[in-house]
Amino acid sequence: MRNKLKTLGVPVGSAGVFREVVTATDIASCMELNKGVVGKWIERYDSFPDPVATKHRLVFYLQNEVDEWLIENDRKYDKAGNCLVDWGRTNE
After folding, report:
1. pTM to 2 decimal places
2. Which listed residue, of 17, 52, 66, 78, carries a Cα 20 to 30 Å from 60's Cα?
3. If DSSP codes are grouped into helix, strand and coil, which group holds residue 36?
């Protein structure tokens, strides 16, 4: 059974606006990838978005920045133009 991805709101910026954040595990689940693939992107590409928050061992990224990075690095859509990211999809 699949559940909707739960994102946390964290205050970002001087206005204290709450934004949607995701972890590497969230990214991997939404793209139906192994978490190791996303971990390699984070390690290998300096252009991958910087984390905005951490809690315990979790590292959080802004969802919209991850989306932009996926588009800029040709990872959001396949060659047929199908979107590879479904932020409402998680694997169990």
Report:
1. 0.71
2. 78
3. helix
Return the SS3 of 17. Answer: strand
User: Partners of 19 in the beta sheet?
Assistant: 10
Given the candidates 1.10.10, 1.10.1660, 3.60.70, 1.10.150, the CATH classification of the domain at 8-72 is 1.10.1660
Residues ≥6 apart with Cβ < 8 Å to 29 = 5, 89, 90, 91
How far apart are the C-alpha atoms of 69 and 62, rounded to whole Å? 11
pLDDT digits (tens, 9 = 90+) for 41-72: 999 999 999 999 888 888 999 988 998 898 88
Distance (Å, rounded) from C-alpha 63 to C-alpha 66?
Answer: 5
Separation of CA 34 from chain center = 13
